[in-house]
Amino acid sequence: MEIKEAISRAKKNDQKAFNYLLDLYWDDVYGFQLKRVQNENDAEDITIQTFSKAFDRIETFNENYTFKTWLITISKNIHIDLVRKEKNTIKPVISKDDNSVLQILDESPTVEDKLITEQNLANLLRDIKKLKPHYQKIINLRYFQELSYKEISKELEEPINNVKVKLLRAKKLLAEVITNKND
């Protein structure tokens, strides 16, 4: 999939296109923020918010610019807003009752989903424990407690888009743990 095609498909709420763009640009945005905030957790939270906001507003992306530059600009602005607020906790970028966040569809199963379900439960639980605690929690809420995105959003007190991006990232990291173990 090419970047222009992925962007076009993402504008039509194609979940695979969102996954592709997240995978392709995660390290760039995360690395940019890590240099700025010099804290892994804060950089990760800002990166999640960046993708959440970008996916929510992808129809506003101007094709005359590069997608990476657009993401970095969003990320920079989120960080600036956080610094201005001078708070230690990261606040949601979008309001909790904003229904437009429901536009990112959950098409199942993804490659990561298939790989995860192929593992037996004992190995899977051991692999999940290798993830950061907030990723362990979101996987537990989604796959073991079988909560909806909306229920997870209420449980974590975060916008649905943030939940979706965190879950995408958690699944990708878990798939990498499983794949690396099998190599």
Walk me through the structure.
- This protein is mostly helical and 183 residues long.
- The chain has two domains: 3-85, Orthogonal Bundle (Rna Polymerase Sigma Factor, Chain: A); 99-182, Winged helix-like DNA-binding domain superfamily/Winged helix DNA-binding domain (Arc Repressor Mutant, subunit A).
- 69% of the residues lie in helices and 0% in strands.
- It contains nine helices and no strands.
- Helix 3 (40-56) crosses helix 9 (160-182).
- The radius of gyration is 16 Å and the shape is globular.
- The two termini are 26 Å apart.
The CATH topology label of the largest domain is: Arc Repressor Mutant, subunit A
**The CATH class of the largest domain:** Mainly Alpha
User: What overall form do the CA principal axes indicate?
Assistant: globular
Radius of gyration: 16 Å
Find the count of extended strands (DSSP E, 2+ residues). Answer: 0
The percent of residues in helical segments reads 55-70%
Largest sheet: none
Mean pLDDT: 82
Helices and strands, in N-to-C order? HHHHHHHHH
CATH architecture of the largest domain: Orthogonal Bundle
**If helices are DSSP runs of H or I spanning 4 or more residues, what is the number of helices?**
9
Percent strand equals under 5%
